Amino acid sequence: MEKKLICVSCPIGCEITARIENGVVTSVTGNRCPRGEAYARQEAIDPMRVLPTSVQVIGGDLPLVSVKTDRPVPKRLIWQIMDYIRALSIEAPVKIGQVLAEDIMGTEANLVATREVRPVQERSPSRASPLKQSRAGSSRSPDRTGEQ
Ligand code: SF4
């Protein structure tokens, strides 16, 4: 059996053909460098992907924090890993680069935060909602005073 692949290891994007016999890659052609051969051997048998997603945050100024695995995980495990991540929650604050889960499902990949989430009480005045600001302003307006 042959598998046609596009190498994603660099922008050139070589078209690679991997020949597979009895579950083993027996030849790789079309690659311009050894990285392409390594990519094709992995991709043809057990593709791997970095997984970007999000995790629920408790008590944060955002309800979710974006996360990603710090190394590729087997594509065949993506849905099981997503179920695992969906069940997670983390209390604010969350720092960029913070490890939220280690060695996810034995893949050796850690789940790391890719943005910061502050606790709700640390929200700065400049990020207060426009609704609150407009209410504060209207209570001091001459028109409202005149209505009373
Ligand atoms: S085989 Fe080498 S040159 Fe071709 S896309 Fe892959 S990394 Fe780039």
Question: What do these coordinates show?
Answer:
With 148 residues, the chain is an alpha+beta fold. The chain is elongated. The strands form three sheets. A five-stranded mixed sheet has the order 8-5-6-10-9. A three-stranded antiparallel sheet has the order 1-2-3, covered by helices on one side. The protein has a two-stranded antiparallel sheet with strand order 4-7. 24% of the residues lie in helices and 30% in strands. The termini are far apart. A hairpin with an 8-residue loop joins β1 and β2 (15-21). The protein has four helices and ten strands; from the N terminus they run βββαββββαβββαα. Mean pLDDT is 87; it is low at 128-148. The chain has two domains: 2-45, no CATH class; 52-125, CPE0013-like (CPE0013-like fold, Roll), CATH 3.10.530. The chain binds iron/sulfur cluster. Residues 7, 9-10, 12-14, 31-33, 35-36 line the site of iron/sulfur cluster (SF4).
SSE map:
Elements: E1 2-6, E2 15-21, E3 24-29, H1 34-45, E4 48-49, E5 52-58, E6 64-69, E7 73-74, H2 78-86, E8 89-91, E9 99-101, E10 111-113, H3 130-138, H4 142-147
Parallel strand pairs: 5-8
Antiparallel strand pairs: 1-2, 2-3, 4-7, 5-6, 6-10, 9-10
Bound molecules: iron/sulfur cluster (SF4).
Iron/sulfur cluster binds next to α1.
